[in-house]
Every structure is written in structure tokens, then in C-alpha cells.
């Protein structure tokens, strides 16, 4: 540091009082003043002299190596084995709304299988006029739709029921991704086979060893369910069900059957393992809710957050996060810096769309003091994201799934953040 | 059907256009599914027993089958090993703090158990159980939950007579009524509560995964790898590995006298491995690699088998399956090699380990 800069740089204390007295404008101007000529500008850099990689250096590009910490992460103690397990999207490090496939969370029940398009078959059977078998090529010949939807595991935030547990938005809220799917409406395939009047449900299953079968009411199956083979413009990744997965908009991720191989039309639900022993919600009196398919409206601040602390000190701060609802579109997000005493509306990056992630921003002047940061989503049905206390009041303390409570990050004066629960 | 067709033909002339929008457009894609194909895939079983094949199995047979195929993860008495699911116990705990949800305490339908065991279990070797085996295993799970006596035989005929304790324990999603107060539309914006206190902190619990030291070291190693120069430290490690390999390889050649009793005992222990591994003549890679000649062999050498990244890395580093290494691996595979694909919890008894190694040694090729 030059002598010049050391003289001009105010102490932290002076800085804070100065900011309060002179107002935000002065701080911004002070911050912009350079300490001395920046060698990154004044000196000719290596990359401006030589040459970089040629085309084809990476036929399929991966993120540059400086971003290698933006990856999925696993919480080992959660499950017995990684083959039947889950990991988490690094939402703390992403922006916008589309989740890149390469870091979108994975959930397998018998591991991610490798299934070639040539070996792929989809059967429609049960209460239909003509049971049918489709190849992958057949699917590509039906009229196609493109739709953006979030996929959230019912257990997202599940570890937080007991209290503040995991220190990072990736771990508390990362069982979610949001992609643009290309595929054929399930309705089209069901109509091709001809659903008989007594058919009221479909049972969908995958080609992997777990099969992960789920029952879906026919009404939903004929509404917005997609048989998808592309995500974000390219083939699905193996870990997301290549070559074909089911997309069940707004409903819990477990129903989005991967490696979809069969759709059976039935009079009633199968009551499979995944819809009885799992993905059911036990209330305080010991009875359990079943068929809790819809994901309630929810939001989380992704930055600042425990894995994304404030490193730049007081002054302009971008507070940002994600909001979504399985019932419709996000219509608004409020942000609180005092643990829910007072709220102010955040700015939606774009108007909310049906059953898809919405990005919100609060362009904020941080004075360097502690904050208890919260966000609260509201959807097009008038539903307002509840607090954990409100949820516990109705559901008791034994829930595993469907925790859509308001999240609190305790941002300290140092800029570090911690997952906390507040009264 | 023919009547319907006639009707269509009869009205087609007058109302082709009017009828079209009402009927779903067909594309003529795909082909009819054959009865054999439907039979092969349509295996699901509904609560009313639809889909159950004829067959039966006893608690007694189930105990043997359970011990062979299921106990590795679920325990001999269905009590669960480590983090693997517990299948028995927990009755009357659903309203407690931390209820124990098992087949006996929670599952509302027996059809679900039969269907899941039949189609998705054993883990790593699914769809290998016959209908009778499945009846027997389900009978044993019922017995483990004190729901049937030890002489019970489950069949497609008495299947619906079994009463599941929590059959009436479920209600259909009632969030829109029970949580109607969440639809407030205009939430509070100012002075919504008097005080705010931090009541719980994640840092106190400290269960968040951190980037481990080992991982960082590995990364550092990876980073230095592409460098053209090889410094002294790397050479040293290499030399050390070579020495270890030689040392380990030597005893493997002395396979002269194997204790036949021990080999026989090992064959029994190997049942636990059979779900995933084959050994002997005609052995192939299954969920796990074939194991012919494994004792004393270099790690990661089964042709065409897709090893885990860590196993590949260990193989590159020159790991040899000496008896000592194998024993350590078999005792606690996940602890020995974090990230291994082998989902086996480990052999608890040293005798079992020695026996199974002796058994494996009896297949030198």
C-alpha cells in the first residue's frame, strides 16, 4: 500500500460514522477511488500478449477451472449409501433461474443407470383401448412442447424440521432445479392408446431396479404432465433419467419418474412404497397425510448466505434469492432484515411463471450491522409462505417432507452468515 | 366393437368435421404391446391383491431367505443395520417424538411390501426373487413384527386376511382446509412482532459437511500432476508403492495348502457376497466384479467392470489385494475406501473374513 492510500483510507469506525453522517453517496464515491494505478491495467498481461485455446480444445465445454467449487454436494450422514441417496444443487453460487444440468441435484433409489436410446421402450397399458409400445424415435414424432418447470424433492429443507441444522443454502434448499424441458404431453400418448372411461389413475414406473413407481390421478396426467427427453436444449443427463423422464409440474420430485418405461391406466392407485411408507407426512397425533403431491410456495435467499458471505464490506449489496410455487406463479417476494418484524417488497427479475423458479433481488445499502435475513413468497392463489412455527402448529414436529418455512440467515457484521432459527 | 365401427362409418359422411374436434387426434405411432411384453413388465400389485401371482411361502423358509438376501442391510431380525431401513418394531410410536416407521408400525398395505420386495429388492440384485421366495420373505417380515406366528404360511389365498396395524392411519392431503389460514393474501409488512431472538444455530450442531483435508490434498495432488517435472517427493511415493506391491504380491504365490474346513466355512459366508459377486468357472461381472484370482491380484483388474473412481485411483497407485488389504476392506468397506461402489456394510467377525478369503483363494484363476 502506498503512503497516499494509508493516509486516505479511513478506519472502520470512521468509515461507519462517516457513512451515517454523509449518506450513502459519499461512501460510494470513496469506494470508487483507486489506491494507486492498478497493475492489471497498467501492465501488459500475459493473456493480452499470447494466444488462448483454439476451438475444439474442449469439444463439450465444462465451466472454467476457477469455478470448480460450484458443484453438487452430498451430506454423507443423511443416507446409508450414495446409490440410494441425494445431493444438492449449489444454488448459493448460481444466478438467474435456469439450473445447468451438470450441477442440478440428483436423487437415485438404485443408482443412475445407463440406458441407450436404442434400448429404450415406453409401454402404455392397463385400461386403454390398445396397449402400445413406443421407441425413442416414436416419441420424437409426436408434437412437442417446451416448458420451464422447477423440480423439488419433497424432502428439500426436511433436515430443518428439527431446527437449524445445515449451514448453507445448498444444503437447506438445494434439492431443487429448474430446467426448460422439451417433450410430448403425456395426454397425447394416453390418447394415442385411448383411455377407457373406467380409467381414473395412471401408475408410472422407471426402468431402473427401484422402478420408483408412483400413482397419479388421470386428471393431472391429462393436464400438464410431460414425457421429456431434452432439458435446457440438450439430452437429459444420465443422472436425470436419460433418455426419457416424466415431468410432473408443481408436484414433488419423486413423481418425476426417471428412465420412464411404463404408464399403466388403472381404476385406483397402486399405493406403492414411495406413496405409502415414504413421501407421506405424519402429524402430531400419529395419523399421516398421503397424496401430498403439490409443493407449497417457498423462497430462500441464496446470497448472502452461509456459503456466500458478504466480502466487500458496507455499501451497495445485492440480496438475491429464488421463489417458487407448485400451485401457480410467484406474484411477490418480501424481504426482512430484522428476522420478520418488518418487510419490504423485493424486485422480481421477471414476472413469475407457472410452477417455475422466480429470481428476486433487493438492491440494498448495507450499513455493516447485523441482519436476520428472511424472504417470504406469495403465489397466484394468495398463499403466503409460512414460518416454521406456523407449520409446526398444524403438522407437529415429526414431518420429514414439505418443509416450506421461511428461512433465516444471521448475517454478522463481518459479512459471514449462519443458518439460525428465530422466535 | 363392430357395432361401434358401423356407427362411426354411418355418421362419418354427415359429421366428419363436427366429430373431429371431439375425438383425440391419433398419430398411428408406436405398435400394439404383445401379451408377453405386458406380462413381463406389468408386475405391480394393488391393495386389493390385483396383480398377485399364485404361490406361497412360510415364515421358516422366509427366515433363511431373509438371512441370505436381506440381513446384510436390514439385520437378521429386520432390525436394520447402520442407516439402512428397519423393517420391524416401532408399533405404537407414531405419535411419539421420532416415531419408528416400519412395515409393522407404518405400512398400510401388505401388497406394497410384496410388490416392493418382488420388484426392487434385494438391493443390487433386484427382480431375482421368485413369487414363492417373495411370499416367504414377506411372511418372515410379518413374523418379525409379531403379526403372525412362526408356523404361518403366506399365500395369494390368505393374503388379504393379514391385518396391517396402521391400515387406517392415513388421511388424504387436507392442506387446503387444515392450512387455509396460509392463504392470507395480504401479509403483515410492518411491526409484525415485538421481539426477535435467535433460538437455534446451525453452528452449534455442526453437522454441515466441510471440504475435508483429504479432499484438499487430493486436489493439490491432481493440480501438480500435469506438471511436466516430477519432483523428489513424487518419486519417493512411487518407490514406496512399488515396494509395498512387491511385498504384498509375494505371499499370494504361496497358495499351496488351504484348510478345506475353512474354505467350506468361507463358502457359507460368501452367500452374503453372492448378490453382487460371482466366483468360479464361468463367473462374470455382476453388480460387483468377478472374483476369480482376486487374492494377491492388483486392484481394479476385472475386465470391462466399471470400478468406482476411488478404486481406479487406488489401482493406479498400485493397490494389491493381499490378504491383509482384503481383510481390512471386508471388515468395513466404506471406511477402508471412501467412495467405493461396494454397498456392503462389512463382515463383523474376523473368522468370517479369514474364511471368505480362504474360499476366494480356492479360485486362483
How would you explain this protein's 3D organization?
The complex is a heterodimer of chains A (423) and B (365). By secondary structure, chain A is α+β, with helices and mostly antiparallel strands. Chain A folds into 3 domains: 3-42, no CATH class; 80-289, Sulfite Oxidase, Chain A, domain 2, CATH 3.90.420.10; 298-420, Immunoglobulin-like (Sandwich), CATH 2.60.40. Helices cover 14% and strands 29% of the residues of chain A. Chain A is built from 9 helices and 24 strands. Chain A has helices spanning 3-8, 12-22, 24-32, 39-42, 136-139, 169-173, 186-193, 218-221, 388-395, and strands spanning 73-74, 85-88, 107-108, 121-126, 132-135, 145-152, 176-185, 201-206, 214-217, 226-231, 234-235, 245-247, 260-266, 281-282, 288-290, 298-303, 315-324, 330-336, 344-345, 347-348, 358-366, 371-379, 408-411, 417-422. In chain A, the strands form 6 sheets. Chain A has a 5-stranded mixed β-sheet. Chain A starts with a helix and ends with a strand. The model of chain A is unreliable at 1-30 (pLDDT under 50). Chain B has 365 residues and is mainly α. Among the domains of chain B are: 56-161, Cytochrome c-like domain (Cytochrome Bc1 Complex, Chain D, domain 2), CATH 1.10.760; 260-361, Orthogonal Bundle (Cytochrome Bc1 Complex, Chain D, domain 2), CATH 1.10.760. Chain B is built from 16 helices and 5 strands. Chain B has a two-stranded antiparallel ribbon. In chain B, α11 (260-269) crosses α16 (350-361). Chain B starts with a helix and ends with a helix. The chains are: A alpha+beta (423), B mainly alpha (365). Chains A and B meet through β1, β4, β5, α7 and β13 of A and β1, α2, α5, β4 and β5 of B. Chain A: Residues 115-270 form the Oxidoreductase molybdopterin-binding domain. Chain A: InterPro entries: Ig_E-set, MoCF_OxRdtse_dimer, Mopterin_OxRdtase_euk, OxRdtase_Mopterin-bd_dom, OxRdtase_Mopterin-bd_sf, Sulfite_DH_SoxC, TAT_signal. Chain A: Residues 289-407 form the Moybdenum cofactor oxidoreductase dimerisation domain.
